[in-house]
């Protein structure tokens, strides 16, 4: 019935907003902003009606959660980096019907998920920043998904992604894009060193690790990457424990995925962290078979919170 038209791993660095403002950082993240514009253009060309964002700034301690209120509008200041994002206006529409549908299918597939359509809960900036550049005309409806998962298995997050794709393709009359909003390595520069690392990665190890991962994505080395994801998330300081990445790979088919990544905004450093905009072509998958690696809670795929 429905169609998943686009999947991407995207940056949401708050310096993108600083890049708009007069001052020493103006224009410094234009390449990342341009990458968001390109992804939005592709969504428009594909007829996407809803963007689902796996948001690594939405922290949850139990279950998976979908924010699918009818609309949101307001002014946002980051509690984490108020000197980067301050008084940023936002406004866009949600998709309550799709959010509730996706939660229902996920629960049918034994992934405990709650949809919140009647809520005062506002999206976090892992959703707000991308929508600022992708959705200024409110063309796309939005569903935000919790992806800073503190006590969750990574393969359950992959199963969630698989369930959301099943919900779209088997029950939804529309076209959807899925975005994993989070960094690669996420080791912030030590306090006092942030200006020095504004455009750098925290360590040569992390940069080497990230660049090798991007190569694996471009080469289509998915079984190897899925196997190493828990350790990469731990040793690479993965944002949100890389649950957004597991969810996106679940959408794509996990280790059975056979596409090759296309880099839109090349890898770059931001306050010590590794960032990128990259699109993954959506390839056909057997809708009736859960990929074997995500069929159960295997020890090798536990969350970082569980492992440490």
Number of strands: 10
User: What is the count of DSSP helices, taking H or I runs of 4+ residues?
Assistant: 9
Mean pLDDT: 94
| β-sheet strand percentage | 15-25%
Helical residues, percent: 25-40%
CATH superfamily: LigB-like
Q: Taking Cα atoms only, what radius of gyration do you get, to the nearest Å?
A: 18 Å
**How does the overall form come out from the CA principal axes?**
globular
Q: Any idea of the CATH class?
A: Alpha Beta
Q: What is the rounded distance between the termini? A: 42 Å
Q: Would you give an account of this structure?
A:
The chain is an alpha/beta fold and 308 residues long. It has one domain: 3-Layer(aba) Sandwich (Protocatechuate 4,5-dioxygenase, Chain B). The protein has helices at residues 15-18, 30-45, 96-108, 125-134, 154-171, 204-219, 222-235, 243-252, 304-307, and strands at 3-10, 50-60, 64-67, 71-76, 88-93, 113-116, 141-149, 175-181, 262-270, 273-280. Strand 9 and strand 10 (273-280) form a beta hairpin. It is globular.
């Amino acid at each position: 019935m429905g169609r998943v038209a686009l999947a991407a791993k995207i940056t949401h660095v708050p310096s993108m907003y600083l890049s708009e403002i007069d001052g020493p950082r103006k224009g410094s993240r234009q390449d990342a902003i341009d990458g968001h514009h390109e992804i939005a253009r592709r969504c428009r060309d594909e007829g996407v009606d809803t963007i689902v964002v796996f948001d690594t700034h939405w922290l949850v301690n139990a279950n998976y959660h979908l924010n699918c209120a009818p609309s949101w509008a307001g002014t946002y200041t980051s509690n984490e980096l108020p000197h980067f994002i301050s008084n940023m206006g936002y406004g866009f529409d949600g998709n309550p019907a799709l959010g509730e549908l996706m939660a229902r299918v996920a629960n049918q597939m034994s992934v405990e998920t709650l949809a919140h359509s009647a809520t005062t809960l506002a999206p976090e900036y892992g959703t707000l920043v991308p929508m600022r550049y992708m959705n200024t005309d409110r063309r796309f409806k939005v569903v935000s998904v919790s992806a800073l998962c503190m006590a969750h298995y990574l393969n359950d997050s992959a199963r969630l992604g698989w369930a959301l794709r099943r919900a779209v393709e088997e029950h939804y009359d529309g076209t959807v894009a899925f975005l994993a909003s989070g960094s690669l390595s996420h080791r912030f520069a030590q306090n006092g060193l942030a200006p020095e690392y504004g455009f750098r990665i925290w360590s040569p190890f992390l940069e080497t690790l990230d660049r090798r991962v991007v190569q694996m994505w471009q080469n289509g080395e998915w079984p190897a990457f899925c196997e190493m994801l828990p350790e990469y998330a731990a040793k690479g300081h993965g944002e949100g424990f890389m649950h957004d990445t597991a969810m996106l790979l679940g959408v794509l088919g996990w280790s059975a995925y056979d596409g090759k990544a296309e880099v839109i905004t090349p890898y770059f450093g931001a306050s010590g962290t590794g960032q990128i905009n990259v699109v993954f072509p959506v390839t056909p998958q057997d809708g009736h078979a859960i990929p074997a690696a995500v069929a159960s809670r295997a020890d090798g795929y536990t969350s970082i919170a569980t492992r440490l």
